[in-house]
Structure formats: C-alpha cells, structure tokens
C-alpha cells in the first residue's frame, strides 16, 4: 500500500497548479494569464502568440502588439483558436507549498516525470522484494529489518536534499528497496512470533497503524510548507526503529528452520518470562531432524500443485489490490475538490475495514471476506463510472464503498499470504508475491492518467473488471482459519486435502521439521 508525498501532488496543469509563463512573445505580461485561461490550454502546450497587427502612426510595434492582445488575445486567430506549440521558458508557481513539481519543473513536456517518480518508487519496492525478501529468509528477519530501516532513513534524507532530478530519482528508487524490506520483514516477524489465535489480531492491527499514517499524512503536508520538510518528517523516525535491536527478538520459527534450536528455546523462555509465565520442564530442548538446511528458491513456490496454485492466485490478488487501491487514491488529484480533505476522508474510510475484518475472518474464515471485498470494490467502481454527474453525493457514497472494499482486500491478502507459505519460504514468498503489487504500483499512475485523458471514468471500469475477476479467483484458495502456520512445503500441500479443513473445523497440521 503506497501513500507517498507525490500522492498529495495533483497533476501539474495551469488550472490546478496555477502555472504561469514568465515570458510570452507578443503578449504583455499582464495579458498572458487571460490568454492562457481563455484558450483553455492543456498544460502540456503553450499558446502561440497572435501575429502582430500593423504598427500605427506614432506607436511602437511592442505597444501595438500589447494593445491588440490586451483587447482580445485570440481575435487575430481564425475561429478564435490558437495553435499550440511545445512549452518553453522558465516558470513561476502561484502556490503556497513547494512541491517536487515546482522544484524540478515537472510540467508540460516534463509532466510525465511526475508519474515516473511514483513508478520508480514502486520499481524499488519490486527490487526490494527479490533481494531483501530472499535475504530475510537466508540471514534472519531482524537483521534485514534493521538494515532496511537504516537504509530508508539514509536514502530519505538524500532524497530531501537532492540537487537535481536525476539524484532525486536514484535515491527514491533506493528508498523503495529498503522500504519494502522494512515493511514485509516487520509483518512476517509479527506473524511468526505469535500463536494462531493472536495472528489475525496483530496482522490487522499493523494495517490499522498504516491507516493512521494515511490519516496523519495530509495534516503533515498541509502544515509543512515544503516537500523537503514533508520528506524529512516521514523519514527521520526510521532511525528510532534501530532501537528495536534491544527489544525485538529473532523469529524462533526461523531459527528452528536454520537448525538453531538452542537460540530459539532461549527466546521462548524470554517471551514466557515477559508474559509472567514459564516453560514446563518437559520443554527442555528442541530436537531438530537431520534434514539438510535448504535456501529459499523461486522454484519451490511453483514446483508442487498446491504451492503453484496459491502463488499464481496471490500474485494476481496483489497486483489487483495495488492497481485499484493506488488508482483510487491518485484519482483524488484529478477529480477536483480539496485534496487534503479528500485524502483525509479516504484514510478514515479504511478504519471500518479493519473492524469488519476482525469481526468476520474468525467467524466465517478468510476466503469469503477476501472474495466479497474484491467483488464489492469491483462493482462499486463499475457503478460509479456510469452514475450521472448531477448526483455527487451518490457518486461519493458508492466510490467510498469501493475504497472500503479494496482496503479490506489489501489487508486480507497480507494475512492470507503469510498463512499459506511455509516458514522456510514465508518471507521470500510474501515478498515475491507482493512484488506484483509493486508492478501494479508502477503502471497505476500511467494507467490512470493516460486512460483518464481519453475518458475520466475509463480507469474505474478497468479497476472494476480486475477486482471482480480477483474475487472469483481467491475462492479457489484453501481456507486457513484456525490452522497452524505450515513449516514445510509438504504442510502446504496438505492444506488442499479435505482432511486439513473440513467445514471450518480447526485441525492443527503437524510440524514436520521439528518438535518441542
């Protein structure tokens, strides 16, 4: 789920960003604004000045041109339609806040670069999924998490003080790499360190804090007048997370898979002591089989039938969630209204989604809420696209319902993905599947703005189709309600059999790699 600074920057058009040219050949400075707005320029081109009229007796050519243009800037053109040419010259921006648009002049022929900044961030997420996701399964969860937090802090500061656009893009990419490692490793640590009864709660609570960040973000952007300040405000707290080195232990499940039973038992004793409990003398050692430790591999995700089915469906679910979620967020910047208030409201809408998930997934399972949330989001997008413009309250209500649905789908896919993969592949598998989320984030800006240029509601139709199809696919996934986290690929294959889940009855799957 991506909600970055660029999400709060509307598309750079003359009407929205109040961009004005400093120079206009043939038009006086005080008449240029009227000429621009009267012609309804697109923001990616500029008006060609009208041909100069003949110079009158006793007046200069400059005065003649200024007089003609001030009286009616378009009068000299056939059908009052001025030809368009590429923009040129410097720009000044009539707005109170400094943004990356005004910093690097991302307007007119360079307007695509604003889309590119969001795409390059998601490309960094994708790279982080392959590299840091693999590293967390190979070298440990907490080590990669701390490295990622430090990397996010350093690259974020570099982004804030980037001297030019090229440096800005490079460090924004690197911030995406480390950001992916920090987020996914954090989620996996929390999932593995708690029992099955608490897993759903902590998994959703993490999402609630993400939502709280979205709610706070527009306030930060409103009161901090520059994009550099916003960048630092959202980046510097990452250095505080380095203190987790003394607080958060390594995942005992991961330690067992790496044949480090003594360390895992020591951590379990510490956890029991913190909870005011103690381990029974029967739990004196962890016996580990003699199986050779294997490193995670992509082939392990598709080699067996059940793993292959889960991987392909989860990849499509991640992709759909990213495209629809980010598309609906960024759409706020092109439909008008107060961007800060709209962004705030869109964040508040996500809170009921977490509550609905908590109330439903332990009563009726994971699959049905997962499928229903996608279908609700898809239908809401399709309905919104065809509602008449004269019913803003109805359009807003239906669109809000769609945002609620895709938020629930996004939060459930995190939980389901971590529950369907074995410990040996969990961090790598979740990171790799969520890589399709990052790919969706790369194409979402271009998909939204290019299709909206054809028809404003066309992106909603695409979003609706994707979400509806996804709702059908996720019903093919095995139910994981009340089932212990699988430890091996063989455990995952058992999830597909009728013996491992019958009518929602809880049935623990025996751990095959170790025992206490």
What does this structure look like?
The chain crosses the membrane at residues 116-135, 142-162, 168-190, 202-224, 230-248, 312-334, 340-361, 368-387, 393-416, 428-452, 458-477. Keywords: Cell membrane, Glycoprotein, Ion transport, Membrane, Mitochondrion, Nucleus, Transmembrane, Transmembrane helix, Transport. Residues 64-482 form the Major facilitator superfamily (MFS) profile domain. With 516 residues, the protein is mainly α. Helix content is 61%, strand content 3%. It has helices spanning 14-17, 29-39, 61-71, 100-104, 112-139, 141-160, 165-193, 196-223, 227-235, 252-257, 261-274, 305-330, 339-348, 350-364, 367-386, 392-420, 426-454, 458-473, 489-495; strands at residues 19-21, 45-47, 84-86, 91-93, 287-288, 514-515. It has a two-stranded antiparallel ribbon with strand order 1-4. A two-stranded antiparallel sheet has the order 2-3. A two-stranded antiparallel sheet has the order 5-6. The radius of gyration is 27 Å and the shape is globular. The model is unreliable at 1-70 and 498-516 (pLDDT under 50).
């Amino acid at each position: 789920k991506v909600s970055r600074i660029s999400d709060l920057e509307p598309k750079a058009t003359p009407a929205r960003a109040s961009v004005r040219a400093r120079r206009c050949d043939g038009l006086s400075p005080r008449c240029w604004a009227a000429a621009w707005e009267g012609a309804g320029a697109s923001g990616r081109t500029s008006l060609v000045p009208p041909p100069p009229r003949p110079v009158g007796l006793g007046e200069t050519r400059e005065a003649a041109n200024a007089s003609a243009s001030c009286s009616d800037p378009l009068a000299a053109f056939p059908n009052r339609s001025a030809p368009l040419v590429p923009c040129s010259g410097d720009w000044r921006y009539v707005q109170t806040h400094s943004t990356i648009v005004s910093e690097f002049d991302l307007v007119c022929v360079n307007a695509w670069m604003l889309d590119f900044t969001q795409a390059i961030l998601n490309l960094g997420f994708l790279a982080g999924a392959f590299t840091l996701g693999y590293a967390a399964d190979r070298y440990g969860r907490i080590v990669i998490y701390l490295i990622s937090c430090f990397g996010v802090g350093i690259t974020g500061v570099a982004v804030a003080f980037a001297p030019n656009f090229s440096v800005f893009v490079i460090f924004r990419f690197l911030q995406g790499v480390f950001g992916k490692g920090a987020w996914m490793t954090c989620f996996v640590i929390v999932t593995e360190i708690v029992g099955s009864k608490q897993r759903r709660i902590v998994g959703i609570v993490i999402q609630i804090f993400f939502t709280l960040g979205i709610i706070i973000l527009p306030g930060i952007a409103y009161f901090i007048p520059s994009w550099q300040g916003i960048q630092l405000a959202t980046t510097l707290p990452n250095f505080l997370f380095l203190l987790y080195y003394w607080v958060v232990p390594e995942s005992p499940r991961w330690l067992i898979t790496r044949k480090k039973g003594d360390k895992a038992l020591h951590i379990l004793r510490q956890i029991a002591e913190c909870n005011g409990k103690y381990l029974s003398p029967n739990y004196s050692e962890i016996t580990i089989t003699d199986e050779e430790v294997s490193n995670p591999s992509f082939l392990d995700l598709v080699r067996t039938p059940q793993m292959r089915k889960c991987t392909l469906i989860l990849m499509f679910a991640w992709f759909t969630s990213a495209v629809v979620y980010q598309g609906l967020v960024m759409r706020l910047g092109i439909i008008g209204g107060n961007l800060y208030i709209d962004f705030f409201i869109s964040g508040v809408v996500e809170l009921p989604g977490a509550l609905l998930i908590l109330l439903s997934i332990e009563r009726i399972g994971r699959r049905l809420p997962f499928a229903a949330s996608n279908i609700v989001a898809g239908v809401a997008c399709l309905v919104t696209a065809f509602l008449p413009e004269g019913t803003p309250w109805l359009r807003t209500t239906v669109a809000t319902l769609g945002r609620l649905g895709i938020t629930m789908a996004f939060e459930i896919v995190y939980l389901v993905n971590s529950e369907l993969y074995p410990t040996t592949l969990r961090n790598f598998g979740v990171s790799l599947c969520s890589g399709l989320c990052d790919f969706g984030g790369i194409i979402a800006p271009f998909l939204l703005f290019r299709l909206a240029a054809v028809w404003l509601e066309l992106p909603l139709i695409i979003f609706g189709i994707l979400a509806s199809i996804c709702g059908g696919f996720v019903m093919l996934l095995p139910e994981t309600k009340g089932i212990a986290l699988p430890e091996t690929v063989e455990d995952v294959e058992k999830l597909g059999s009728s013996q491992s889940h019958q009518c929602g009855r809880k049935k623990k799957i025996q751990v095959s790699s170790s025992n206490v």
